[in-house]
């Protein structure tokens, strides 16, 4: 049996937008709520929690860990630190995808504007409707709840098929594109899923879906009111006949781990094509040369998993084999980032070294030429970056980049000899100018290094050796001395 992908579904976090286009906000002081914010930042993020007994009932938790509540007079607060009866809401989804939130206790509806929010309306009007804007990183793996299989772009069939045991390679990366309150599903080659299962180069009415939440899972409702589900033997993703989502129409979004190939000092790819022992002896990149890098949250050490689901493990005499099905101390490797190269240290305190015959052994005390590897990230051809204050997006009126936006631009990532070029939709490149600002209108590519430092987060280093960071004003700069929190990016 294949081990599962080892991922928990992503927590469903979102912003709620009222009829005036303003976001529901939980203020830090006095646990007050309002709907005044024009964009989605930390204070506008809400997490949906299901009731353990009654699947219809939800709780809305603020960024402060407190719950939205309404009393019998419709007065709304966000102070409760547990699931009490005033915090119980029902989601009444409308045909346009907006939500009405109804107090389960008092059966009144929640709405209003700015500082005048209440939960006292007996019927739903425009003022009681909220659009849902997902706040999680929009690139993920999509798991069918019923089939327990992952979606991927099937080039030969021209479709998204839901038949992978492990979400492998770039084809399993899907990007959720938010447009006017609805979402499109974009494949790694930049096409959009139409409701008939065909992939289209342009987004439009048939590629736009309303997100619905049911029992903590997601359903995608198309423009005809039908839901996406996997069909037939390969699980072709398209709209079915159902106008109510059942198990077949439910999906989880899971974190997409980085997948990498490694090139040794001899210029060959590290591979397990010959068996279980790692050797740098292949000239091309296939599944046997691709490894999933999973970074431990606490130790920041990495495991490397093969497409068969087994981990690299340190064995006797410094050997490294893909024989382990579970994570242990011997499957953990420290990654040292050295400019455009890396070195890997095993649990015996020794560095991995490439021998003359291509075999990889953890036997070296220090780093020389044979201990250096080039690590190439293969499953982010489209790059969306989110920092502690928001997404990276091109500035409206200049060539600089904002690092605190609630909307994102999609950039393309091109590998070049251990470094990367980052390119915008207009075909122009990122570079750091003389004033230390990161600009996006370069004619020629500039080399950046990517360092995969934490689970789900990377740092980007300019050729000066400095890190890219978001400054207080929300501008992207290339002057960070180290990979501090302002220089770490969800990707």
UniProtKB/TrEMBL annotation:
PANTHER family: FASCIN, FASCIN-2
Ranges where the Fascin-like domain occurs: 22-132, 141-253, 265-374, 389-491
Subcellular location field: Cytoplasm, Cytoskeleton
Pfam name, any one: Fascin
Gly residues bias locations: 471-481
Region (Disordered): 471-491
Domain of life of the source: Eukaryota
GO BP field: actin filament bundle assembly; cell migration; establishment or maintenance of cell polarity
Family the entry assigns: Belongs to the fascin family.
Annotated protein name in UniProt: Fascin
Molecular function in Gene Ontology: actin filament binding; protein-macromolecule adaptor activity
Cellular component, GO annotation: actin cytoskeleton; cytoplasm
Keywords: Actin-binding, Cytoplasm, Cytoskeleton
């Amino acid at each position: 049996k294949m081990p599962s992908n080892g991922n928990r579904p992503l927590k469903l976090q979102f912003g709620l937008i009222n009829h005036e286009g303003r976001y529901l906000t939980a203020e830090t002081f006095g646990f007050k709520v309002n709907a005044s914010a024009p964009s989605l930042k930390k204070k506008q993020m809400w997490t949906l929690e299901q009731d353990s007994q009654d699947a219809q009932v939800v709780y809305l938790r603020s960024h402060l860990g407190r719950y939205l509540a309404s009393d019998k007079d419709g007065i709304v607060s966000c102070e409760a630190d547990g699931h009490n009866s005033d915090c119980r809401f029902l989601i009444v989804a409308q045909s346009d995808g907006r939500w009405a939130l109804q107090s389960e206790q008092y059966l009144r509806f929640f709405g209003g504007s700015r500082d005048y929010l209440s939960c006292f309306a007996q019927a739903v009007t425009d003022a009681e409707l909220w659009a849902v804007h997902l706040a999680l990183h929009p690139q993920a793996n999509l798991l069918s709840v019923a089939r327990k299989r992952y979606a991927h772009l099937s080039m030969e069939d021209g479709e998204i098929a839901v038949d992978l045991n492990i979400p492998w390679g770039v084809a399993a990366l899907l990007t959720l594109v938010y447009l006017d309150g609805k979402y499109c599903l974009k494949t790694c080659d930049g096409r959009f899923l139409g409701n008939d299962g065909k992939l289209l180069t342009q987004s439009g009415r048939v590629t736009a879906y309303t997100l619905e939440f049911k029992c903590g899972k997601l359903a995608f409702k198309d423009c005809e009111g039908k839901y996406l589900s996997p069909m037939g033997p390969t699980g072709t993703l398209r709209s079915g006949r159902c106008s109510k989502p059942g198990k077949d129409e439910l999906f989880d979004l899971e974190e997409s781990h980085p997948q990498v190939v490694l090139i040794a000092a001899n210029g060959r790819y590290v591979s397990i094509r010959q068996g279980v022992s790692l050797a740098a002896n292949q000239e091309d990149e296939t599944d046997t040369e691709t490894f999933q890098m999973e970074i431990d949250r606490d130790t920041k050490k990495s495991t490397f998993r093969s497409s068969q689901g087994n981990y690299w493990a340190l064995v006797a005499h410094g050997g490294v084999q893909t024989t382990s099905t579970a994570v242990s101390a011997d499957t953990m490797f420290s990654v040292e980032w050295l400019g455009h190269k890396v070195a890997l240290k095993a649990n015996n305190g020794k560095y991995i070294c490439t021998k003359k015959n291509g075999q990889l052994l953890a036997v070296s005390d220090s780093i020389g030429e044979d201990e250096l590897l080039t690590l190439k990230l293969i499953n982010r051809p489209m790059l969306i970056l989110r920092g502690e204050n928001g997404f990276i997006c091109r500035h409206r009126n200049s060539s600089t980049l904002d690092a605190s936006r609630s909307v994102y631009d999609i950039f393309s990532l091109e590998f070049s000899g251990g470094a990367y070029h980052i390119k915008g939709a207009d075909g122009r490149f990122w570079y750091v100018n003389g004033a230390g600002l990161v600009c996006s209108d370069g004619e020629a590519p500039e080399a950046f290094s990517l360092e995969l430092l934490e689970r789900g987060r990377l740092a980007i280093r300019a050729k000066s050796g400095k890190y890219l960071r978001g400054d207080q004003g929300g501008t992207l700069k290339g002057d960070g001395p180290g990979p501090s929190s302002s220089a770490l990016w969800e990707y």
